[in-house]
Amino acid sequence: MRLALEEAHVALTTDDVPVGCVVVDAAGTVVGRGRNRREADGDPLAHAELVALRDAAAARGEWNLEDCTLVVTLEPCVMCAGAVLQSRLGRLVYGAWDDKAGAVGSVYDVIRDRRLPHRVEVVAGVAAEESAALLREFFRKRRD
């Protein structure tokens, strides 16, 4: 989570919402990194999770990331939860809950929907307060 938080801090330099993400393989090696880049790239799909998943798939030369863990500072939205399922990730670890758009237990629970064919282990609340504080400060400054 420390590495994901570092990515979140880098997102601040482009005025992007500070969400960071890493993908690690079974050996614990980082194979993908991402941070929100919607503002930086002008891309509505450039959420931290999608950036990191694309990076991991490119590094490994395959889309199936079943032996990998995605670590992200904020609970994934519906789009990103779908991407987690489509990449066949084995585990998802996230920090802060997203009470407005979360899709892994807060508002929706796409990841655990038994109608879908893939199961992902979920670990929630890792460094949640640090992740949430970073987001609160970002939006406080934006409102001021």
| Helix count from the secondary structure assignment | 5
- How far from one another are the termini? 29 Å
Quaternary structure? single chain
Return the string of H and E elements.
Answer: HEEHHEHEEH
Percent strand equals 15-25%
Overall body shape = globular
Helix-residue proportion: 25-40%
Largest sheet: 5 strands, mixed
- The residue ranges in which pLDDT falls below 50 over 5 or more consecutive positions are none
- What is the SS-derived class? alpha/beta
Compute the number of strand runs.
5
Global Rg: 14 Å
| Strand order in space, largest sheet | 2-1-3-4-5
Mean pLDDT: 97
Q: How would you explain this protein's 3D organization?
A:
By secondary structure, the protein is of the alpha/beta class. It has a five-stranded mixed beta sheet. The protein is globular, with a radius of gyration of 14 Å.
Task: Provide keyphrases for this structure.
144 residues; alpha/beta; 5 helices; globular
